[in-house]
Design goal:
alpha/beta; globular; six-stranded antiparallel β-sheet; 694 residues; six-stranded parallel β-sheet
Length: 694
């Protein structure tokens, strides 16, 4: 018995004892609760098969006896149990209606919705393939023969019994060596680690130099001055790391190969926490120093801290007062940096810099040049954003509350695949700017696409604004504008058919950008793996479209036959030899708003029963058979077969590694929790990992 089986039996026994009454038996409803089986069909079938004496209740002995078969039984024993689950009437064979009932229950438990006609197609595809003698019923031998044509399914019959009834997964924390001490971690993060070492050394140098320069003032005064000098540097450097336009420009130069520009947000956070630490030590050292001074002068500690009478500071003795305010503001900004008030608390930076100029006599020397660049960036951003009003000319409301905006693209707007921009729509919120990834390709010259998931106040207002029917109080030029937009856009490929969720419009908006992201590195990769979770597909939508546009430009067709080939696909412009696209979604509807017909795609639906789940075996076989017959997936309508459950990253990356298509770069956009898992696997295989922040 495997460790997994042992843990599972302990879990089942504990569940049984918790729910069973004084008679030590459970009925059907209690059985559903004990094993957390969602679909009543499977609960009833399992209950019937486990209830060996037909008493309409199951004792612990009956349950463990049945489960023992699943653990110690042979492949044939397990297959017979599966056959009995499908043989609803106990006739010894499975007819089409029984098979349809099983598949319908599988679809419900997997949260998949298909038309009745498609369910009939699935049933017939599996039934006709399994019914070898065309007798109108599937026997045990025929089912076994059909399963043998699916090696993965046969393999699952020999796996742990815990995968047959699928109890809730229990997180296991295996003790391993810290990843930060592994060789692969240091290799894959060499630029970041080298940068952090240089950063730490520079702070140490500034600290020691300032301390030595003020050694006549005593230990506390030396520490305060050392921290103050480090704060001069860090309070300026934290701004440099967020100069988006400068960083976007640097990403197109050789500097990107030396400095960790793609991790500027992480470095910004590290510098922010460093500033907090230095301010706390700086303030504490000054307070201790003020206590000593109060014993030598006629001023109290509170006078030193909260008044200008002692005359501390280069601007009318305001150093202590501004220092107290700065300490409060910096603490507020750091504490609120991970909450919903992040934006408003971070607006304090204007006050922080202003107070620092008053507080410290030398800060302006550090701040002058970066501050001028910062102001220039802001002025240019506002100028470009308001230089000419843009208009949203088309809106499509997609499943999963995704709003697809089509914006008339200005001539001067150039961007790279995966870039993002800030958008302001006065009709939604006059002063709010929000960042979104551009989902259209740069080669699409007429329009910009944005796909915006409704996940917050502004995005929900946007979705509701366009969901409301158009009112009659519109401009007199509404019809002319709408007709002009329609005629112009009819020439381009639109992602959905016109309907109640699709409208043409003429709504003013402003954009600021574009700004670069780590995905700019994709065309310098040889083998790229793109992983998007949910709405995290948007940067890859742009990239995939751009790849196909470049591919089509190089595609050659023979004038005498249908043969076609691609010339010079590997050049200085694009080194890609292979692209794998992995898209992970919770449910079926999330796939419906993105349609693609190119590259090698791997799509996973996490709500679907995985292939290891006994209840899903018939459904997965039927979906595979129908996909081969129709040459498209029954769930999404795409050519790529949607995989159930979550990816097994070790197997996915092992396959990628074995393909030997060149150096592998993995680009990810989605939840931070999944990013940690994928990054750890990338380090194990020596892949370069890049994480999108939008």
């Amino acid at each position: 018995m495997s460790d997994e089986d042992t843990r599972w039996l302990e879990w089942v026994t504990k569940q049984f004892e918790t729910i069973a009454g004084e008679d030590k038996e459970i009925d059907l409803e209690e059985f559903k609760t004990a094993l957390k089986v969602k679909e009543s069909f499977f609960a009833e079938r399992f209950f019937t098969l486990f209830d060996s004496d037909g008493s309409a209740s199951i004792s612990l002995d009956e349950l463990l006896e049945a489960l023992n078969l699943l653990i110690h039984g042979s492949e044939t024993d397990k297959l017979k149990f599966l056959f009995q689950v499908y043989d609803v009437d106990g006739s010894g064979s499975i007819d089409p209606d029984e098979l349809r009932t099983v598949l319908k229950s599988c679809l419900r438990e997997s949260a998949i919705s298909l038309p009745e006609e498609k369910l009939d197609d699935l049933t017939l595809a599996l039934f006709e393939s399994a019914d070898k003698d065309n007798s109108g019923a599937i026997t045990f031998e025929e089912l076994k023969a059909e399963l043998e044509e699916f090696p993965e399914v046969m393999e699952n019959l020999t796996i742990s019994a815990a995968n047959w009834l699928k109890p809730p997964e229990v997180e296991e924390r295996r003790r391993q060596a810290p990843r930060y001490l592994t060789r692969t971690y240091w290799q894959n993060n060499s630029r970041k680690l080298l940068f952090l070492c240089l950063y730490a050394c520079l702070n140490l140098l500034l600290f020691v130099t300032a301390m030595l320069h003020h050694r006549q003032g005593g230990a506390c005064f030396m520490v305060a001055k050392g921290c103050g000098q480090c704060l001069n540097f860090n309070c300026t450097f934290v701004m440099v790391l967020m100069l988006r336009r400068c960083l976007t420009w640097l990403r197109a130069t050789w500097v990107v190969r030396v400095l960790p520009l793609d991790q500027n947000i992480l470095l910004h956070q590290i510098v922010g926490y460093t500033i907090l630490c230095f301010t706390l030590v700086h303030t504490t050292a000054h307070v201790v120093n003020f206590v000593k001074l109060s014993q030598l002068t006629g001023f109290t500690v509170w006078e030193y801290l909260l008044t200008t009478r002692p005359g501390v500071g280069w601007v009318r003795g305001t150093a202590s007062l501004t220092g107290v305010v700065l300490q409060l503001l910096i603490c507020l900004m750091v504490l609120c940096s991970s909450t919903f008030v992040f934006y408003w608390s971070h607006l304090c930076y204007m006050w922080v810099w202003s107070l620092l100029v008053v507080h410290c006599a030398n800060f302006w020397k550090w701040f002058l040049v970066p501050g001028m660049v910062f102001v220039l960036e802001k002025v240019l951003g506002l100028a470009f954003a308001h230089m000419g009003s843009l208009y949203i000319v088309e809106v499509i409301l997609l499943p999963s509350k995704v709003t697809h905006l089509v914006i008339k693209r200005p001539q001067f707007f150039t961007f790279k695949p995966g870039d993002y921009l800030y958008i302001n729509i006065p009709d939604i919120a006059k002063y709010e700017w929000h960042p979104f990834t551009i989902s259209s390709a740069p080669e699409q010259s007429d329009t910009l696409w944005l796909h915006i998931r409704s996940m917050g106040q502004w995005t929900n207002r946007l979705y509701e604004f366009f969901r409301q029917p158009e009112t009659g109080a519109v401009s007199p030029k509404r019809l002319a504008t709408s007709l002009r937009n329609k005629r112009q856009l009819i020439k381009t490929q639109t992602p959905a058919k016109l309907g109640e969720n699709h409208r043409f419009c003429n709504i003013k908006c402003y954009v600021d950008g574009p700004y670069g992201t780590p995905t700019r590195q994709i065309f310098a990769s040889e083998h790229a793996v793109l992983i998007g979770a949910g709405i995290g597909i948007t940067p890859f939508a742009s990239i995939l479209q751009s790849i196909m546009s470049r591919y089509r430009r190089r595609k050659q067709n023979c004038p005498n036959c249908s043969y076609s080939w691609c010339e010079n696909i590997i050049d200085s412009d694009m080194k890609l030899r292979k692209v794998d696209f992995i898209w992970i979604n919770r449910d079926q509807k999330s796939f419906e708003w993105f349609v693609s017909r190119f590259l090698e795609m791997h799509m996973y639906m996490t709500s679907a029963l995985s292939k290891n789940d006994m209840k899903a075996i018939g459904l997965q076989m039927a979906l595979d058979l129908l996909a081969k017959k129709d040459k498209r997936d029954s769930i999404t309508g795409l050519r790529t077969r949607t995989q159930p459950g979550r990816p097994e990253w070790a197997k996915v990356f092992q396959k990628v590694s074995e393909e030997n298509k060149g150096k592998v770069h993995v680009f990810y956009c989605g939840s931070p929790a999944l990013a940690k898992t994928i990054k750890a696997q990338c380090e194990n295989f020596g892949f370069h990992f890049y994480k999108e922040n939008f």
